[in-house]
Amino acid sequence: MSKTIVINGTIITVNGSNQVLKGGAIAFENGKITYVGETPNDLSMYEEVIDVKGDYVLPGLVNTHGHASMSLLRGYADDLPLQQWLEEKMWPIEAQYTKEHAKWGTYLSLIEMLRTGTTTFVDMYDNMDEVAMAVEASGARARLCRGMIGFGSEELRQSKLEEASSFARNWNNKANGRITTMMSPHSPYTCSPQFIEQIVSKAVELDAPIHIHMSETIAEVAQNEKEYGERPVKHLEKLGVFSQRSLVAHAVHVEDWEMDILAKHDVKVSNNIISNLKLASGIAPVPEMLKKGITVSLGTDSSASNNNLDLFEELKQVALLYKGVHNDATLIPAEKALQLATIHGAEAIWLEDQIGSLEVGKEADFIVMNTKQAFYQPAHNPVSHLVYSGSGRDVKDVFVQGKQVVRNGECLTVDEEKVIFEANRLSEQF
């Protein structure tokens, strides 16, 4: 890959000192960042020079929980509580899903994520080979896992476990390292203790992290207490889930002592703030988690419960909601909100050495925002403008491992017209 430099940008590094460089530059070669600093006077050593003329350059966003294939169900069943939404609407229609649904649903989500600045995402679903192949073709980065619901026969459970294990083994570090994998029991309310223990055992064998839904609703927590005599956090700790590297989605209904357990085991949390609001699941105690040193990141969940995958919306919500709920305007300032979507997202999936900030030696995953718009002016505070004024629709260019995958808002790696046609064709079958 040629030596490339992006010059005259407002470089929002999200490094240890949250450095912002006006008139800055970022250079990369062979997919890795080689320089971050002021725009050099001599550019002769670079084969490609990209002048962004003051636009913001920042790390690609990291979406730490979702189900990409479910984009085909966007708007299919809205304004329902979670259990009714899942059991009466989602699960019956998902039972009709084929590999083709998974393929085109994933491509539809990939276009949306890349065009709104998400370069890395976590996905838990079925037909994961199709998901992985779409990720590989798109140029995106992902941590993928075959989600396992433990209903049905023992034979079916063992089949799912073998499929999930094979997927985790076969796809880890594929696509030039852009795809990494995990093991994923769906949740404590859909998987028996024995099945969860079997999944943990397999995760240990594969040295794979674990991703699981946890404490999303009050009803789920009450059911766990009734069936197993424990709230979900203690229940999963006893089953050995937290002995492995663990990422939990939601963690809405967790008490103070449960957060202490999560902190003790360095369990990572994906806060799906908009999905949780839309399904009336509740509001996770994120400020309290952050005080305890828990790594909190942002996820959209699926576009069937969000209903889009624009992580900038999560950014703004996480920076605003807690201020209003707690009557404290100092909670989760703009800088912290941006960290949740970038470096903390990278930490939540154990990739902070590779992505999440713009620093020499890291992968060249970054986005360029079109900030030559009225709502980015005057340029008092670029980070504040990103969080409170910006949106994913302002993303102009996207690079992953130094390869441009979006140019001037157009996805270069996926045929958007074909994907939209196929997605609509398939959705008419439901």
Overview of this protein structure:
The protein has 430 residues and is of the alpha/beta class. Helix content is 37%, strand content 21%. It is built from 15 helices and 18 strands. The chain has helices spanning 82-94, 99-115, 128-138, 154-171, 193-206, 218-228, 232-238, 256-264, 273-278, 286-291, 311-326, 334-341, 343-348, 382-388, 416-427, and strands at residues 4-12, 20-29, 32-38, 48-51, 56-59, 61-63, 118-125, 141-148, 179-181, 184-185, 210-214, 246-250, 268-271, 296-298, 366-369, 395-400, 403-407, 410-411. Strands 1, 2, 3, 4, 5, 15, 16, 17 and 18 form a nine-stranded mixed beta sheet that branches. Strands 6, 7, 8, 9 and 10 form a five-stranded parallel beta sheet that branches. The longest helix is centred in the middle third of the chain and has 18 residues, at 154-171.
In short:
With 430 residues, this protein is α/β, with parallel strands linked by helices. It has 15 helices and 18 strands. Strands 1, 2, 3, 4, 5, 15, 16, 17 and 18 form a 9-stranded mixed sheet that branches.
Topology:
Layout: E1 4-12, E2 20-29, E3 32-38, E4 48-51, E5 56-59, E6 61-63, H1 82-94, H2 99-115, E7 118-125, H3 128-138, E8 141-148, H4 154-171, E9 179-181, E10 184-185, H5 193-206, E11 210-214, H6 218-228, H7 232-238, E12 246-250, H8 256-264, E13 268-271, H9 273-278, H10 286-291, E14 296-298, H11 311-326, H12 334-341, H13 343-348, E15 366-369, H14 382-388, E16 395-400, E17 403-407, E18 410-411, H15 416-427
Helix pairs in contact: 2-3, 2-15, 4-5, 11-12, 12-14
